[in-house]
């Protein structure tokens, strides 16, 4: 439901059931409900935009996962190399496994993971903003508080969506025997993947969250790096004359992906391996995984799949920004709701529909 239709319904309800002298008090009471609906809708818009981008970037994400699992805990040059470059890997998967059961394997799990994790992430972050936790006493934004709010939202989203991410990774790692990498999980059909992940082959419910700590750290590092670089580049492009919000965001997104991938790829590799293993088969903790990886594969092991990671992250961010801009224009734009707080209601006793609508800069 868009803001005009929501406000129109509220206006009609006030006129029909509430005396004129009580309009101001009643509207103030329901203003919080309108704001909460704005937060939820904005979060869902981001989640849907990110999830929809999966249909374009899924093949690159699959290649990234398999490159990260290739040669697990084996020294360089001591294992067969099935995946060399991104084009070669895509063609190889297409020839041996096809499109639906190859390049787009795990799309359903990835779609739900993006929807849940990003919706929760944005909701928590926006909630921190509306509560004033990201600004000081003078309502000026504070970078450190923004980082904390971003990390809190990322951890919440990663924790709640952890079973979905586990199902995604284990589905993507399943491949043709001639190009198999990593632990191959015997999930007979896609509908049983999530159940098998939760049940685990040892009967532990915690198998559904076996990589939760690594996922939180991965998202925290990526969120912090992305927020700092993205914001810095946005201000830089704005000072250079790039006034369009969408163009500025797209340019900033393309360039910010480079430091984000460089900083977060080691944590991404650890996270992928923690989720793909049979429960505690190779690593009992994230620290043990990092130590074994460095000792047996060297420093280069932390940057396996880095190029594929960038090639997947960059278009995914651009598509998410473009789709989010389109979706939010169809519904409640959260900044409109903030304007109502900034301007104040100042509703007089003689309440009019036009005055109510003017608080949202919308014609009645």
Task: Characterise the protein shown here.
This protein has 364 residues and is mostly helical. Helices cover 69% and strands 0% of the residues. It has 14 helices and no strands. It has helices spanning 3-17, 23-69, 86-97, 99-103, 107-130, 143-160, 162-173, 193-199, 212-239, 245-276, 286-297, 306-328, 334-343, 353-358. Helix 1 (3-17) packs antiparallel against helix 2, helix 5 runs antiparallel to helix 6 and helix 5 runs antiparallel to helix 7 (162-173). The longest helix has 47 residues, at 23-69. The chain is globular and about 75 Å long. The protein starts with a helix and ends in a 6-residue tail after the last helix. The model is unreliable at 200-205 and 332-364 (pLDDT under 50).
Number of E-state strands:
0
Strand portion: under 5%
Could you tell me the mean pLDDT? 78
Using only C-alpha atoms, the radius of gyration works out to: 24 Å
Shape: globular
DSSP helix fraction: 55-70%
Q: First CA to last CA: what distance?
A: 16 Å
- Sheet with the most strands, sense and barrel status: none
The H-and-E topology, N to C, reads as HHHHHHHHHHHHHH
